[in-house]
Fold:
Amino acid sequence: MAGKHGKPDDDDGGDDGNVVDTDGSDVDEPTTYAPAVGTVDVSPAVRSPVPPAASPESGAFPDDLAVDDDEPTESTEPTGPTRARRRTSGLLIAGRVVMGLVSAAALAAMSLVWLRVDALDDSKNTTDAISAAQEDSGPAAAEDDGANDILIVGNDSRTDMQGRPLSEKLLRELRTEATETLNTDTLILLRIPRDGSRGSAISIPRDTSVMVPNLGREEKINGAFGITKAGVMEKMVGEGEKDRAKINRDSDDAGRASLIQAVQVLTGVRIDHYTEVSLYGFYLLTEVIDGVDVCLNHSTSDPDSGASFAKGPQTVRGGDAVAFVRQRKNLPRGDLDRIVRQQTFLSSAMQKVLSGGLLTDNAKLNALEDAVSKTVVMDDGLHFLELVNQAQALASGNVQFVTIPVEAVGARNDRGQSIIVVDLPKVHRFVTDLLTPQPPQPAGMVAPEEFGRTAPAAAKAAQPTVPCVD
Structure:
């Protein structure tokens, strides 16, 4: 996203087309029928009521059976089985018409959704960071392992898409303040097996220490984007570049490529797609869907993130939603509990989007398009329809939430920074094994918490209420 900067968080009527008979005659049904809309016409070639039997010699056909009002005739009103057949035929045809209209309406609605999803796709800001990252990727990352891997990034930028600082008023709404650095504190790798089996949403703790290839040293993974961006900006300015938009754009893409490579080193898989939303974007998106339902086990507060929440179920939106997913202080396990919050929040949000009629609400879709155009970046190969499909999977429980295995939390690097230590081979095996169906565990057994194989209850479709978290 162009010009993202962020806070260092080391601590952190009319004619309806119907014809009405008004002559007062007692007519059981029309003499002809049009094929039902949206259905295949399989009725006989002549679609008139069954007439009274006529002698073969008369040569009479249905169209020749008009009654001469000047001559008395015997009644032609059918009785018994013939009349019953006519009424049954009328009901069947009426049913066809209704079903045809319903089908046509559904098709029109789906077409509208497709058009609006395409409009969302046109609204997105694009990046070529994926191709840039793959130009210098390692052997493991270059291998197609049978999954479609989408990196979902949330950054804490305090600027807009053009790199202009957000207003003081907006920063207060976001429960934050201006800062020159940028961190990517939300990192989720969405692994979707190409064989259609259950996918995984893998959370990566922000403080995970990993080798960042372009920097040639280990860094906290949430800093790979910002550190690289700052370096590229400085270099471009030093070389005499005056176009601020270009500096912003190029440095952002360099930061994204650096982050992608770091995630590839950490997980051992190639990233196929990339999507990023800023702090302001997160704020706008929660406003569009009228908030997200959450629940807390205990009352909690944190001045740094602006969090102040009571115990129990509640709906958060805007700045409160931002604070809910950013808080890590005063949580029992710090960043690991924040990850659980992010996972349950995302699942609840997806359920809200898909059950709240967002995709058929024109006003909300307009607001969503506006938010996307201002705050969302995706690689050009990723279509919004793919994200809608994955949102459905998340909401239905067809994607499990997990967290990479960690060895130590709160360790210190040589610069005194608090970091999370991981064992790379163990992380690689964990990520690879997610593509292999796991045998059911014995009753009462729970997967090790540090490996995060047990999805939060919010991801389970059978869960009737929002689960409470710390």
